[in-house]
Amino acid sequence: MIRVGIIGGGAAGLTAAAFCENAHVTLLEKNEKAGKKLYITGKGRCNVTNNCALYEFFPKIVHGEKFMMSSLNAFPPPAFMEFLGSGGVRLKTERGNRVFPMSDKSSDIIKALVNKAKEKAEILTDVTVKSISRDEVFKVETDRGEYIFDKIIIATGGVSYKATGSTGDGYKFAKVFGHKIITPVPALCAIDLISDVKLLEGLSLRNVRASVTLCGKTFSEFGEMLFTDKGVSGPIILTLGSYINRYPLKGEKIYIDFKPALAPNTLDERLISDFGEMPNKDLSNILTNLLPSAIIPYVLAQSGINPRTKGHSVTREQRYALGFSVKNLAFAIKGLADIDTAVITSGGVDLKEVNPKTMESKLCEGLYFAGEVLDIDALTGGFNIQCAAATGRAAGIAASGGTK
Ligand SMILES: Cc1cc2nc3c(=O)[nH]c(=O)nc-3n(C[C@H](O)[C@H](O)[C@H](O)COP(=O)(O)OP(=O)(O)OC[C@H]3O[C@@H](n4cnc5c(N)ncnc54)[C@H](O)[C@@H]3O)c2cc1C
After folding, report:
1. 13 CA from centroid of ligand 1 (Å)
2. How many CA atoms lie within 13 A of 271 on its CB side?
3. φ/ψ bin of 144: left (φ > 0), alpha (ψ from -120 to 50), beta (otherwise)
4. Closest Cα partner for 283 from 253, 308, 315?
5. What does residue 113 show for φ and ψ, rounded to 5 degrees?
């Protein structure tokens, strides 16, 4: 019987194990148990997939969309959900087609994946793979001795949240076989600012638009965001982080539109009306009708207007400058937050060197990759775990020689 070794017991490795057929399968996981990263996903609830139609799914893949077509078509969200169900977990679908375990406990997803993997594989925990080499067979050196396999699936994840075990070992293993590694960068991550925003820390905003223009291309997102001690975070910022992570960032600005629903002339009319109603009040007070108080000093500073200016004495130029700042408050970007704090790693094993149907290396026969170790990353909403599972399934079937 063919011997398949799977390195890594996350979503990708466990799904790969579950889909192996007619093989002696051993999964090696360095943690004391499998699925440590899954445990913290979806704030402990695990948004395990997104049950949207595939034509809506693909645009959510930021890098690797084309590569994912084959494996996702073969294992779309409903198939993954059925698979999880057969592992014993009941699921529910929430707003935006996001799928969670009925219990809201990520541990139930882990249990289901481990149950399914155990049907086909032996899971060995507390085993750290140190190196992989190949002559006739693959030799896997671990801290618990050597293992011999005919086929290997590398499912070691990226380099984010290293405490969960994803420390980038897979890149090192892949390089030994000649694979190019696209430099790992943070994705779905906060953005650190040069501008001092300490006074704004904790301020969360809804219905705003954040935009960044890089190399002539504008990335713009509408929704919720928040200020941290070092910069900005929250849903729309995480998305922007994924879009801008492959551009060199050096002092570019992120612009926040606090009133995206108001056209500039409508906003101007609103300012005229507010100033007319409160002619003897300070601007800093009048603007509380329009903006959160903490933001007002920043808007006035960018507009070059003294906060003490009374409503009746605001000039037309000042009003225009104010309206512009409300719709374009600029903060200088320092860079993306540290990769360890990113929800996902962008970059990894170059997809050009991997067969998208089987996940087999084009450089080394019998070597396969699955999950976040590959240069694939998607937006939030359950898309990343689904990609890990779909690539895992494809690798498991192909490595064990199955035909499903
Ligand atoms: C805070 C957070 C929240 C998230 N929430 C969601 C969400 O709700 N929905 C979603 O779709 N995605 C979410 N993600 C992303 C998602 O968790 C990952 O994309 C997915 O888990 C990747 O699975 P993987 O199996 O490829 O890698 P991993 O889950 O990283 O698994 C890799 C495994 O390999 C093991 N390993 C590594 N090196 C070795 C070695 N040398 N020897 C042995 N074992 C090794 C590791 O210990 C680890 O268990 C979230 C991520 C984070 C950090």
Report:
1. 10
2. 29
3. alpha
4. 308
5. -65, -40
CA distance 206 to 78: 32
Which atom from ligand 1 is nearest to the alpha carbon of 42?
8
- pLDDT tens, N- to C-terminus, the chain (404 residues): 999 999 999 999 999 999 999 999 999 999 999 999 999 999 999 999 999 999 999 999 999 999 999 999 999 999 999 999 999 999 999 999 999 999 999 999 999 999 999 999 999 999 999 999 999 999 999 999 999 999 999 999 999 999 999 999 999 999 999 999 999 999 999 999 998 899 999 999 999 999 999 999 999 999 999 999 999 999 999 999 999 999 988 789 999 999 999 999 999 999 999 999 999 999 999 999 999 999 999 999 999 999 999 999 999 999 999 999 999 999 999 999 999 999 999 999 999 999 999 999 999 999 999 999 999 999 999 999 999 999 999 999 999 986 44
Interatomic CA distance for residues 96 and 104, integer angstroms: 16
Ligand 1 atom at minimum distance from 43 CA? 3
Return d(Cα 101, Cα 34) in angstroms, integer.
Answer: 18
The answer to whether the CB of 321 is under 6 A from ligand 1 is no
Cβ(187) to ligand 1 under 6 A?
A: no
Domains of the chain: 2-185+344-399 (3.50.50.60), 190-336 (no CATH)
